[in-house]
Amino acid sequence: MENLVTAIGTPNIALVKYWGKRDVGLNLPYNSSLSMTLDESLNTKTSVLVSDRLQSDTIYIDGAQQKFDDAKEEKFALLAEVLNYMREAASSSSKVMIVSRNSFPSSAGLASSASGAATLVFALNEAFGLGLGQRELVIIARRISGSSCRGLMGGFVRWERGELPDGTDSYATQVADNAHWPEVVDLIALVSAEKKRISSSEGHRRTPSTSELFKVRPEIAERFAGMASRAIGQRDFQTLGEIIIKDSNNMHATMLDSYPPIMYLNDASRRIIYAIHDLNASEGRIVGAYTFDAGPNAHIITLKNDIPKIKAALQGIASEEKIIVAGQGSGPRVLDESESLIGKDPFGQIKM
Ligand code: DP6
Question: Which residues form the domain of 234?
Fold first, then answer.
């Protein structure tokens, strides 16, 4: 068997967050979450070569070879599990070469692992010719990185908390596609490209086990997820914006309440929070709704017409070249052979 596939996928930004796992092994969340899949302004490209001529499985991310058994990076062991599962499902014994490249810094709260995992699962399905449906791919991606399961489809996506211990009812579905409300965009203000001190995997463990505040978080987030879905259905930005802001602050409050505390926001993040509230107050409406993942970079959800107002409000905090505006995307797709990151003779050249 020999097959070479290249796919492109994108991050998704949670508008109602996933934080804390009720089952760590299966990545089952305490609450449902809701996200927006971004367009290809930020992307992961992944080439997968499946070949009987390969001696072993290899993986390169952003130019560096990674080890599947790297003890410091627990994600790679999960990745190896998923790879073996998909290979078995294809009744194949071929080894694979995976070359993946992010167009943006990883581990800085820009959802590189989510983008990487969703793109990889999508590419493996194509490379092994498995023809798995979206529901199955979502559940496989969730095993590698919870948030990645929301990135297998476009527009607005809800990841269901589920009830079953085996996780078969914890999957993502589309709330609205990217044509429903295309005016909504994510203005990302990059304030740091530093690798985070505390991995989100560690945070997902620490917060539920040590934070008193977390006891009330799942119920609040579940309610927010329902309200946000309805606001999206009605294209009601005022309601959606308020939920986005409150949910981000609620999650970060539980992080700070963890022991030892987890703090992902920095001074620039806090200045952005104040600048956005000042802008919203002076306009008498929610112009921008900020949200932060496990990092200090701000995602300001806004409507296309208001981009200049947000940029003006950020002056002196984030310069123009540190701002990326991403619209909504439609999920991963296969790229043309000419875009492959693995050369024609894969046993020598890797284009990086
Ligand atoms: C703060 O999906 O990165 O971005 O399941 O361990 O891979 P793992 O965690 P991950 O957590 C993301 C947390 C978040 C919020 C969110 O995206 O919902």
Answer: 2-339
